[in-house]
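Handoff note, outgoing to incoming analyst
You'll be picking up this chain. Sequence as last confirmed:
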Amino acid sequence: MSRKKPEDAVDRILAQWNRERPDLDVTPMGTIGRVNRCSALLLRRLEEVFSTEGMAAWEFDMLAALRRSGAPYRLAPTMLFSTLMITSGTMTHRLQKLEAKGLVERIPCPDDARSVLVQLSPAGLELVDRAVTAHVENEWNILAPLKAAELAALDASLVKLLAVLEPQE
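Most recent structure output, in case you need it:
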């Protein structure tokens, strides 16, 4: 006895396209639609945890990038915005917000008096360490329904897809 897979929102969209445009093979819409839908739903679940720590996802991303850089948890603004794939204008605006909250500080660059570095404050370090612990636990909970082999296969497929999509350095 074969089990039919449960229908999802993307299946309904595909069925509509198949009805309206039977001449098109819309198979790629299914894959890309599911990746997009997963991304949106995952972001919602991740933001729930960040909000319990009083922060938005972008705030976590910035603080985490500084934390991952290692002690003394500082980066040049250009390195920070290129790591986060945002514009310099967006970076400036976000830095001002984090600075106002006391989570980061700008310090003079010891190698170049004309530039500054962005550094986690003690409060920022404490917050990001607490948030990353909750974040990783949340991610484990999200992925818990998948078996280890399924998770490994999904990860391997996503690695291949990223290799196709990311620009080659």
